[in-house]
Each structure stands twice: as C-alpha cells, then as structure tokens.
Amino acid sequence: MYVNSKNVLILPGWQNSGPDHWQSRWETLHGYQRVEQHDWMTPRRGDWIARLEDVILGCDGPVLLVAHSLGCILTAAWAQISRSTARVQGALLVAPGDPERDALRAVLPSWAPIVRQRLPFASTLIGSRNDPYCSHDKAQSLAQAWGSRFIDLGERGHINAESGLGDWPEGLLWLNELNDKKGD
Questions:
Q1: What angle, rounded to 10 degrees, do the helices at 45-57 and 70-81 form?
Q2: Dihedral sign computed on CA atoms, order 58, 69, 102, 41
Q3: 33 by DSSP, 3-state: which?
Q4: Per-position DSSP letters for 124-150, written without gaps between them
C-alpha cells in the first residue's frame, strides 16, 4: 500500500524547519504536507498533539510521518494518547531532541518527560554521534523504547540544514522503506 504524497506529513521541531532544511526541500520537491503548528517558538505539547491529530484525521488513506527533533518527541506523545494510530503506516524519526536536558527543559517545559512507549507502527530513528540536542546514547535508548530501527548517521550534527544534506536522497530511501511496509 503506497501513501499519497499529500499524506506524508512533515513534523518539524522547535522553531520550525527553514527553507534549506531537508524537510522543507522534501515538501517542495515531493508535495509532502507540513503540519503547521500555532506557535513554533513556545511549543506546548498538548497543542501540538491536538494539531497533529486534526491533520491526520483530515487525511484520506494511510499516513507517513517525517519527524525531526521535537517532532520525534511529538510523534511518541501523540501515539500514546491517539485513537488514530492505525492510520499511520510508519514514521521516520530524525535527530530527536532531548527536552529532558537541563538546557532545554527550561524552554520546553511541557515536553518532559519523554514518552517511552513502543510505537504502534513501523519506525526508523536516525541519530548522529555529535548532535548538540541529543546524545547518541539517548537517541539509541529512545529507538529501543519506541521499537524503532536505529540508523547511526555518523557525525552529522543535528541532521538539519547545517549538516549539508541537501535533498538528502539517503533519507528518502529510508522513508520509502517504511512506505513499502505492510504493517507489523
């Protein structure tokens, strides 16, 4: 079952993804849909979960989630309480942020603790060894808790525009692998 490109939902993290970010490039190149949040600068977990639920309920057919940073944490938080998880074919979770870190806890108070429950759909988590927002060990730990396949991308920072990925064709291949899954 292949997901319609309009049902590939881009979930940026805190402060959104700029025009050079691979998420924005995928949106432009492939027609994926960004889940626009009401407040990118002061994100509240409940607000973001409600917005994601609304968008998913508005999709016709199966959905793929493409999350970056806080978008990964959103995916886990949403999956814990939503009754719509069967609509999700899979999730590509890239460079999760760590709102449990002291430096981030103060600016993202509603996001800790991180939900550590197995996701009810296929997922792949891609982490970096030198991500300034989440240690490599923490990313691996989240992948294990969520039941995600873990891919070590090496030293690529926060896997964002500054990482020099451009259109990131390798990431697109991993997304397509999730699209090819028939559900587990």
A1: 70
A2: negative
A3: strand
A4: EEEE-TT-TTS-HHHHHHHHHHHT-EE
pLDDT tens, residue by residue, 15-69? 999 999 999 999 999 999 999 999 999 999 999 999 999 999 999 999 999 999 9
> What is the pLDDT at residue 3?
81
Q: Which residues pair with 150 in a beta bridge?
A: 125
Q: Which two tokens stand for residue 41?
A: 């600068």
Separation between Cα atoms, residue 17 and residue 12, nearest integer Å? 6
Q: Which two tokens stand for residue 50?
A: 């409600």
**Own/partner pairs for 113-117, CB < 8 Å, 24+ apart?**
114/73, 114/76, 114/142, 115/73, 115/76, 115/77, 115/79, 115/80, 116/76, 116/142, 116/145, 116/146, 117/76, 117/79, 117/80, 117/145, 117/146
| β-sheet bridge partners, residue 9 | 33, 65
Angle at Cα 182 formed by Cα 177 and Cα 184, nearest 5°?
A: 100
Domains and CATH numbers, the chain: 5-180 (3.40.50.1820)
